[in-house]
Amino acid sequence: MLRLPGLIDPHVHLREPGAIHKEDFESGTAAALAGGFTAVLAMPNTDPPLTDALSLARAQAAARSKARCDYGLYLGGAEDNAPQVAGLAPSACGLKLYLDQTYGPLRLVETTAVWAHLRAWPKDRPLAAHAGGRSLAMVLLLAALEGRSVHVCHVSRREEILLIRAAKEKGLPVTCEVTPHHLFLTQADVPLLGSGRAEVRPRLATEQDRQALWENLKVVDCIATDHAPHTLAEKDGPQPPPGFPGLETALALMLTAVAEGRLSQEAMLRLMHSGPRCIFGLPEQEETWLEVDPDVQWEVRGEALQTRCRWSPFEGMRLRGRVRRVTLRGRLAFEDGEVLAPPGFGRDLSPAAREQRGGEGERGPT
Ligand code: NCD
Ligand code: ZN
Ligand code: ZN
Ligand code: ZN
């Protein structure tokens, strides 16, 4: 049995409020624990989106009573809310800027709006961007001009990872994440998945792009699932929304890669624990660990998953490595397929919430 620290996923969509038929804080954090994640950072493209104090307060209240694992909530940048969200920074895990079209209404069209956010958001708090291609070059320049960090979400293409590599070589404070689906799937999988189910942003890329991600794994700071649940009825319907669920397959995909010698276990833990913890300034979760059977093989079956959407783009794949037990802050939270941590057990990891609890869990890295 392998003992690992609790995994951290810096990019999930828990769909609450507004679309809890897809997922909510209860089901999404159950999926997280089943997948070995003890902390998840939830994106603000909900309905309504988290763009002001009221929408944030409502999501906080729902998360407080329903989350089973620890969490943070992102605020979302709108065209006109830069000073307002900056004032709420201590209550969020970060600010998310959408520079390209994706699921939901949050999108920054004006360059001046992007710039205003990069200027107003506190320099010591995380700022994450959905930005590919030219949008990526644009946000990297603006962040450099403002002398601030930026975290690039779900890097999927060769030109993008090479641009980030070049920015890092210049000493710019840029970090990035890649998703398991961009590491393991390509355009060639689209016909197998079906075009609706294969919809995801960024789109599945070429084999060359996929290989560039693997070849530049040293440039990558973390794995993020971008767990983006939509129901099968929606994915197979006339207007399939983009997004894949991923919380319950990420660790086994990475452990399979470790078993195949494609990366070390040490590199995996950098990408799934210490990397995200460091970038997002999260506390070390005390008395928190996973017990994983690294050799057991299992087949991905959507209907066996905890996520409410109950499907997977990896359906039918045989993976190696399974979470047996999760202990979160001293409590058995998951054991052999059963989620044991109750709704409300999860804690908000934002600086303001930690301050309110009296600064627990401030221990340094282990
Ligand atoms: C995400 C969603 O469904 O919220 N979809 C996706 O394809 N990744 C939005 C996003 O992360 O861009
Ligand atoms: Zn995105
Ligand atoms: Zn996302
Ligand atoms: Zn640690």
Describe this structure in words.
The two termini are 20 Å apart. The protein contains 13 helices and 13 strands. It has helices at residues 25-34, 53-66, 82-87, 111-120, 133-146, 158-169, 180-184, 190-193, 207-215, 232-235, 250-259, 265-279, 351-357, and strands at residues 2-5, 7-12, 37-42, 70-76, 94-98, 127-130, 150-152, 174-178, 222-223, 289-299, 318-328, 331-335, 338-339. The relative contact order is 0.17. Mean pLDDT is 97; it is low at 362-366. With 366 residues, it is α/β, with parallel strands linked by helices. Helix content is 33%, strand content 19%. The strands form two sheets. The protein has an eight-stranded parallel beta sheet with strand order 2-3-4-5-6-7-8-9. The protein has a five-stranded antiparallel beta sheet with strand order 1-10-11-12-13. It has one domain: TIM Barrel. The chain binds N-carbamoyl-L-aspartate (NCD) and zinc ion (3 copies). One zinc ion binds next to helix 12.
